[in-house]
Design goal:
eight-stranded mixed beta sheet; alpha/beta; 19 strands; 419 residues; Urease, subunit C, domain 1; single chain; TIM Barrel; 2 domains
């Protein structure tokens, strides 16, 4: 009897063998690796667990692997949306002011859950979300819910509340109590404190508004001084965070660049001189072409000539940035227009003069490098997370192929598969 009891104890206490990770062999028509602008015909990719195990031609089928044939498709890294607002929805549905002032945070969070899922299913497995626009720190909980597997969604880099100079932001409701509900007001020494508070609350990136309109109808002007911006940049970098600065005026952009920003958002009025300075300092531009395009259409433009002044300005500044070879982020300010339509920005980048293959690089390894994620995502390379997307056709030739998604994988798990 003692022998039987001892044997049972040994069986109970014996360590169970570790479960072998699932192995998949993906066989598309071609692989765009996120770095080389030319797709690799005949390549396959092996996924082991949540990581890419191998990529290349003539790969043998690993023992026990499940083979997934993806004929007539291009397999590429999961795309990275560089400027998103998951807590906003298109302005032709509800104006920005009304979303910020009238929609309860619970409703906006419910929308954000849906937006996150839609974004992921469109092939964007990572997003940099640049401010909740009045929804406080709700993006912290959204990110945690995705990470814990409670809801589906992309990997998130979040900016929480964002920072604005006192009196410069909105909504401008006529009541001073609501003058800056869309972001956190802070200036001088208090600005540094506010930035650190947001980092402590969960911000991965510090977002500041380097210029804005003081009153409705006025032109934008630089708000923060270079000294104020530099103090936040130094603190954010010391904390291992990046800094994104909204700036559309030459002076706002100049101060942001000299202060050490990682990215400048919008850059509508950028000049050749400013873009040369950005190139020299390694500051990336997130042009948000699609937001300008969408707002112009909401105001009645039909997409034909003559173009509105805002579209002409954006087209000219983007062309000047390309000439200067400024590092280019792919981010459209999605939320101004529909989530899941993120490809709209990429199509406009190509339409405005950027090679389709270079747009693809910007949306994958380019954004990964700019956002300091290259050790995790952005390329098809052994050891990186298996965030992968298969699309019909060859997007390096025609970006509209990105709208026909056949497979989406995040961390080795298939979240969408079309026959």
């Amino acid at each position: 009897m003692r022998f039987i009891v001892a044997l049972l104890l040994l069986i109970i206490e014996a360590p169970t063998p570790a479960q072998e990770p699932r192995v998949l062999l993906l066989r598309p028509a071609r692989v765009f690796d996120g770095v080389d602008p030319r797709p690799h015909s005949g390549w396959s990719v092996v996924v082991r667990g949540d990581r890419i195990d191998a990529a290349g031609p003539n790969l043998a089928v690993p023992a026990g692997a499940r083979v997934i044939d993806l004929p007539d498709t291009t397999l590429m890294p999961g795309m990275i949306e560089g400027h998103s607002h998951l807590f906003l929805h298109p302005y032709n549905e509800t104006s920005w002011d009304d979303q910020v002032l009238k929609e309860p945070e619970s409703l906006r969070t419910a929308r954000a859950v849906n937006h996150a899922r839609t974004t992921l299913l469109a092939g964007f497995t990572t997003v940099r979300d640049l401010g909740t626009e009045g929804a406080g720190y709700a993006d912290v909980g959204l990110k945690q819910a995705i990470e814990q597997g409670i809801i589906p969604g992309p990997r998130m880099l979040i900016a929480t509340r964002a920072l604005v100079a006192t009196g410069s932001y909105g909504p401008k409701s006529g009541d001073p109590l609501f003058a800056a509900k869309g972001a956190e007001e802070a200036d001088g020494a208090d600005l540094l404190t506010a930035a650190r508070r947001q980092i402590g609350a969960g911000a991965d990136v510090v977002k500041l508004y380097g210029d804005y309109r003081w009153r409705p109808g006025e032109e934008s002007r630089a708000t923060y001084s270079e000294t104020e911006l530099r103090s936040v940049v130094e603190a954010a970098h010391a904390a291992g965070r990046t800094v994104a600065i909204h700036a559309s005026t030459p002076e706002g952009m100049r101060r942001a660049v000299l202060a050490g920003a990682d990215t400048i958002e919008h850059g509508n009025g950028g000049t050749p001189e400013i873009f040369r300075l950005m190139k020299e300092r390694g500051v990336a531009l997130c042009p948000t072409l699609a937001a300008t395009d969408a707002i112009s259409r909401y105001r009645g433009w039909n997409g034909a000539t003559p173009e509105p002044a805002a579209v002409k300005e954006k087209r000219a500044s983007f062309a000047a940035a390309l000439v200067a070879k400024v590092p280019m982020c792919m981010g459209g300010d999605v939320g101004v227009y529909a989530h899941g339509d993120n490809v709209r920005e990429m199509e406009l980048m190509a339409s405005y003069g950027m090679r389709s293959a270079d747009v693809l690089v910007a949306a994958t390894s380019g954004n990964a490098r700019i956002f300091r994620l290259s050790d995790r995502v952005g390329a098809i390379r052994p050891g990186l997370l298996a965030d992968l997307v298969a699309v019909a056709g060859d997007p390096s030739v025609d970006l509209s192929a990105l709208r026909t998604v056949r497979l989406v994988m995040k961390g080795g798990e298939i979240v969408r598969q079309e026959k």
